[in-house]
Design brief:
Elements lengths: L1 E8 L8 H8 L7 H14 L8 E9 L5 E4 L2 H6 L6 H19 L5 E3 L3 H13 L8 E2 L2 E2 L7 E3 L11 H8 L12 H6 L3 H21 L11
Parallel strand pairs: 1-4, 4-7
Antiparallel strand pairs: 1-2, 2-3, 5-6
Helix pairs in contact: 4-5
């Protein structure tokens, strides 16, 4: 099993289509300039969860009980953020290269995450950064560019509405590492705490692996035609 977790951020302010996205999503009932501005900022932050607009900040993954690997923004990348907005795409490309390298090595494994957000975001980022061919690697159940059995959603099976991963971890008696919540990731990024975010992302992967084991998915899945 290849376990994967992504942390994401809003796009650079110069991103094509950003103004249209913010205008489309704004609360049209607001007329007070201060409230309009606040709503626009909140809408901008929410784009971190929209695959066609957001950017990958950090990715962490592991194969079975192997070491947890990660790739993401560094302090050097942060120094260039204001003067060179293209750093968002360069970092995302670097992350994708590392993730897909591991996926190529794990062709006999299923991929697993908590909810399908990571699959949707990985696919959109691959199309955006020119990695579309990597989505056609044959995995159990089909290639990554199609909805198939290759991607296991570990949130399924815990009720009609899946609990947050941290809540599920507490229920199962598993330790949640990283010291952050999902809502705190972008503020931490603005503070330059990229290593803390990486630790949080790696902690989620460790947790995913433990949850997968509890659910009986820790065995290797063979190739299917």
């Amino acid at each position: 099993m290849l376990y994967l977790d992504l942390e994401t951020i809003p796009p650079p302010r110069t991103s094509p289509g950003l103004d249209a996205a913010l205008t489309h999503r704004r609360d049209k009932r607001l007329t007070d300039p201060a409230k309009v501005a606040a709503d626009r900022d909140e809408t901008y932050r929410s784009l971190s969860l929209v695959p066609i607009h957001g950017r990958i900040l950090c990715a962490a993954w592991c194969i079975d009980d192997g070491p947890i690997m990660s790739e993401g923004w560094t302090d050097l990348d942060l120094e260039m953020r204001e003067s060179d907005p293209t750093v968002y795409d360069r970092v995302e490309s670097r992350i994708l290269e590392a993730v897909f390298s591991s996926i190529r090595e794990a062709r006999g494994h299923q991929c697993a995450s908590y909810r399908l957000f990571d699959l949707h975001f990985l696919r959109a980022a691959a199309f955006r950064q020119g990695f579309a061919s990597e989505l056609r690697w044959r995995l159990p159940g089909g290639p990554l560019d199609k909805y198939a059995r290759h991607w296991l959603d570990l949130s399924v099976g815990w009720g009609d509405k899946a609990p947050p991963l941290a809540e599920l971890a507490a229920y199962l008696g598993l330790a949640k590492g990283g010291g952050l919540t999902g809502a705190e990731v972008y503020p931490a990024f603005l503070r330059g705490e990229v290593e803390r975010i990486r630790a949080y992302c790696e902690g989620d992967v460790r947790l995913l692996r433990e949850v997968g084991g509890r659910m009986g998915y820790d065995a290797e899945v063979g190739d299917e035609d």
